[in-house]
Sequence to fold (250 residues):
Amino acid sequence: MSEPNEPTDPNGTAGPAARAAESAQPTGGAGRHVRVVLVDDHRMFRTGVQAEIGQTEQTGVEVVGEAADVDQAVTVITATRPEVVLLDVHLPGGGGVEVLRRCAPLMGDAEQPVRFLALSVSDAAEDVIGVIRGGARGYVTKTITGTDLVDSVFRVQEGDAVFSPRLAGFVLDAFASTDAPPVDEDLDRLTQREREVLRLIARGYAYKEIAKQLFISVKTVESHVSAVLRKLQLSNRHELTRWATARRLV
Fold:
């Protein structure tokens, strides 16, 4: 025997009980989907986040990888190429800032950028500013609800910057107190990919290492380096390194 249907509103919508059950589930919105990597050195916390937001059919969030330290994080992120990484600030091996530094080429990918949302117990200003300067798109603390975390993940996927009001104040204060850099016409001549190659050259990467980082051929790296040298009127990579260091691009 079939069970009785729940009463509906006159316009045919579901009744109160169904609406309440539906609203209790974190949701990313109908039809939305985001691939996420969790980076945190506490396994139980990763398990909790996975249980809270990783129910793909309800939330739209698919957890495609986890990592407990910097090296694991870089390996997993490079292998899975998620849309969003939930990144703890304090990690063995150099912390969240080191993960951001080593994943910079993935963040700069114009076709499939990997975006980072810091998720930390810390609400210290120096931690917030450090990861934002490193390239994270936002910073939320571990007191956040599952529903709000899902919403934050989707907003970061779409390119928004996400902060709680207090943490946003840290960022605004930090950048307001910093002298804005002057317009650099030389740097503006470079494409986004040329800037990525420039930074990696200045950090001492070999052409083969740059090719691997950016998923391009060595020949393409050589072409980008030649273009950068020509546009900046420099003669070799040593001059290029000094040029980038002087502008704090390294």
Observations:
- The longest helix spans residues 218-232.
